[in-house]
Amino acid sequence: MGASRAGRAADVTAGRRLPDPTQLERAQAALAESEARFRLLAQVAPVGIVQMDADGHCTYANDRFCALTGTASADALGAGWADTLHPGDVDRVVAEWARAAEHGAELRTDCRLRPAGGGEIWVHVAAMPLPGPGPDPIGYLAAVTNISDRKHAEAERERLLAAEQRARAAWPARPSGSTACSPRPSPGSSSPTSTA
To answer: Residue-wise pLDDT tens for the chain (196 aa)?
Structure first.
């Protein structure tokens, strides 16, 4: 009888029975399947995917993120992701990240990356907290989308609007009633509406 009591005591922790080994194996298999599905989805996604722990250290970066930044996956891990930020955006993005992490909130921001090959790439970052067992997130999952074409189009639009405003300001004032399309008659000529 002493052996059975010892066996039961080993199965009980803080008043609860340990999970059935079969249930534990199923849970581990389901977790492994879920992880494999995530990795596959992250690899086929047309955007950069980065997973961070609660301290902001990168634990995973997909191939698309590595292509955007021109870095190897191993170089993006840890705090290496911050090295890919454009120097003009580092302070702002790090401060925004710290505020989001402090409150367990999502982060959405546009910033520039400086790829290893040179130049700059505009990206939109959408980082969502990963829920944990308690109230605090266990990390973040971020999608990094290349928006360089949009940013260049916006800059071109602003340039054209500024050029139009300068041209309008430099255009001579028109007499009342005239339009840009109707020329003023020269002295001694008949107007287009006069009758003979």
So the answer is: 455 555 554 555 556 677 788 877 877 777 777 677 767 666 667 799 999 998 889 999 999 999 999 888 888 889 888 888 999 999 999 899 889 988 989 999 999 999 888 889 999 999 999 998 988 899 999 999 999 888 889 889 999 999 999 888 888 766 665 555 555 566 665 555 545 4
Distance CA 171, CA 182 (A): 15
Q: How far apart are CA 138 and CA 132, in angstroms?
A: 5
pTM equals 0.66
Decide if domain 46-168 falls under CATH 3.40.50.700: no
What CA–CA distance (Å, rounded) separates 59 from 192?
Answer: 77
For residue 7, the surrounding DSSP H or E stretch is: helix 2-11
Contact between 131 and 54 under an 8 Å Cβ cutoff? The reply is: no
Please report, in angstroms and rounded to a whole number, the separation of the first and last CA atoms in the chain.
130
Taking CB atoms within 8 Å and a gap of at least 24, the contacts of 71-79 are 71/116, 76/50
Residue ranges covered by each domain of the chain:
46-168
Residue 116 DSSP SS3: coil
